[in-house]
Amino acid sequence: MIIFYRSCDSIRWFISSYKKDGISYILDYGAGKLRNSIYLSELGFKVYACDITDQINKIRSLKKSEELYCTIDEKFLVNYRLAFDLIISNYVLNIIKKDYARKEYIRNTYLNLKRSGYLLVEVRKRTKNTPDRCVTAYYQQELDDMILSERFKKVDELSFSKSIVGVYRKDGPLFIAYKKI
Length: 181
Ligand SMILES: C[S@@+](CC[C@H](N)C(=O)[O-])C[C@H]1O[C@@H](n2cnc3c(N)ncnc32)[C@H](O)[C@@H]1O
Hints:
InterPro entries: SAM-dependent_MTases_sf, TehB-like_dom. Residues 26-135 form the Tellurite resistance methyltransferase TehB-like domain. Pfam families: TehB. The structure is a single chain. The protein is of the alpha/beta class. The chain has one domain (9-16, 23-170): Vaccinia Virus protein VP39 (Rossmann fold, 3-Layer(aba) Sandwich), CATH 3.40.50.150. 29% of the residues lie in helices and 28% in strands.
């Protein structure tokens, strides 16, 4: 099989490490230009690509989107309970500026994973040269704190030169409501 799309290194690492765990349905949450979605579709996974309205409309106009199992406009995801085996989030949390919006995004991952489903999050890495007030890059501990504020447990991590990756599993029911502040 020829794979045309160069996915993130974190995705190839995760699939080679965890594919034995019965992963079939995957949500690419913030799919962008589909580099990870198409890669995973061509490996035989059932991939749902989700993005904000403007981007999902662009995605739907692409011929390659026919390879996807489904596309979802992000604004509707909050209404769904789709029980994915895996949700991937590559370079999305570091571009969501508002705290409540990041929380809402993480809550949506929780609500749409099956019990014990995996969440893979990759964000830009914070280094000692990153300005303190910069919210677009994270230390591993900052990423973990953000994700583990929901009912996830951490199972793995990985560090690249420009990004960090956390792998988490859904752990228990969710009874938390957020309000905008
Ligand atoms: C930097 S791109 C990364 C795209 C892709 N994950 C990748 O690694 O190539 C970030 C993507 O997240 C999307 N995005 C931003 N906020 C989002 C949200 N709240 N829900 C879903 N997608 C979002 C953007 O539209 C954009 O396509």
